[in-house]
């Protein structure tokens, strides 16, 4: 009886699609969702926010109409939405999808959020709130570079994994070390929480020159369709963590007369390419991921059907 229950529980499968920005994850997710007649859970830490549209490369209205998406425009930049919050909410939605479907799809480039759903989060220690306040003050007064340098010195392993344009996550690494004397990277264990579903991990990648060209073209397209106006409309919120990110912080610098517009656009391209490189470094560590070129739909479907 017990083995039958386990078999029933594990009869559901979560397909996870990962890879660098601009590689074509959304397009593949929609094709698979249509093929398997299911729904998509977005694991992109910026597409949650309804105020950030162009700079986050959200699926278009046409794409959203092709398959049901979750966690697109689901939250406001004015409310903190943590990795832990995502783990809890995403698992609820995945369970809901499994009530009527045998397969669900999760797609995104935010490694921490995907890891939270797949493996679960470690319980981290309480920290000294005065340390957090001091680090936040340091960031407000001195900017992100001193925060980056401090984290790299005290916890280089976590520094390599984290989004280095996200001050909140870098401050988390510093405050844990200053509060406990232990590196945050040493607390992120390899132990996994048992999930009630199977997981198939699909990675997308291509030649680096091709990827970088796609990134540059995407940034140019964002500028053409109004990214600068979007950033202007969010100027009153530029202090929020959600907006301290690629595509927004560079244009805030332009609006503050710190750099020219061409310099800002070039910085967006450069920082996005760097981010893509870090994403690949993160995802390649997982030996359970099978890698494909973005166009290899038939091969991907064949792998999934063989594993289900």
From TrEMBL:
Keyword S-adenosyl-L-methionine: no
Catalysed reaction equations from the record: adenosine(37) in tRNA + dimethylallyl diphosphate = N(6)-dimethylallyladenosine(37) in tRNA + diphosphate
GO biological process, one term: tRNA modification
Signal peptide residues on this chain, from the entry's feature table: none
Binding site for ATP: 19-26
Domain of life the protein comes from: Bacteria
GO molecular function: ATP binding; tRNA dimethylallyltransferase activity
Binding residues for substrate: 21-26
Protein name per its UniProtKB record: tRNA dimethylallyltransferase
Species whose genome carries this gene: Pedobacter changchengzhani
């Amino acid at each position: 009886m017990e083995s039958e229950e386990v078999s029933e529980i594990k009869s559901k499968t979560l397909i996870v699609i990962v890879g660098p920005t601009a590689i074509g994850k959304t397009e593949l997710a929609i094709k698979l969702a249509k093929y398997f007649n299911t729904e998509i859970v977005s694991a992109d830490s910026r597409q949650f926010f309804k105020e950030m549209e162009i700079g986050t490369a959200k699926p278009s209205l046409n794409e959203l109409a092709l398959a049901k998406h979750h966690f697109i425009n689901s939250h406001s930049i004015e409310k903190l939405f943590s990795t832990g919050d995502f783990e809890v909410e995403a698992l609820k939605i995945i369970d809901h999808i499994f009530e009527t479907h045998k397969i669900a799809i999760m797609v995104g480039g935010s490694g921490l959020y995907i890891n939270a759903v797949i493996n679960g989060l470690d319980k981290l220690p309480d920290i000294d709130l005065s340390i957090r306040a001091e680090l936040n003050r340091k960031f407000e007064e001195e900017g992100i570079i001193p925060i980056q340098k401090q984290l790299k010195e005290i916890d280089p392993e976590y520094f390599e994994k984290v989004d280095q344009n996200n001050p909140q996550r870098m401050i988390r690494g510093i405050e844990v070390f200053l509060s406990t004397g232990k590196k945050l990277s040493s607390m992120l264990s390899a132990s996994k929480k048992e999930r009630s579903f199977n997981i198939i991990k699909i990675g997308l990648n291509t030649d680096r020159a091709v990827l970088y060209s796609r990134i540059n073209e995407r940034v140019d397209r964002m500028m053409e369709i109004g990214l600068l106006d979007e950033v202007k409309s969010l100027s009153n919120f530029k202090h929020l963590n959600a907006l301290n990110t690629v595509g927004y912080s560079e244009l805030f610098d332009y609006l503050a007369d710190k750099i020219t517009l061409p310099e800002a656009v070039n910085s967006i391209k450069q920082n996005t390419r760097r981010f893509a490189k870090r994403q690949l470094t993160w995802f390649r560590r997982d030996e359970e991921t099978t890698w494909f070129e973005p166009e290899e739909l038939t091969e991907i479907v064949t792998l999934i059907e063989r594993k289900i």
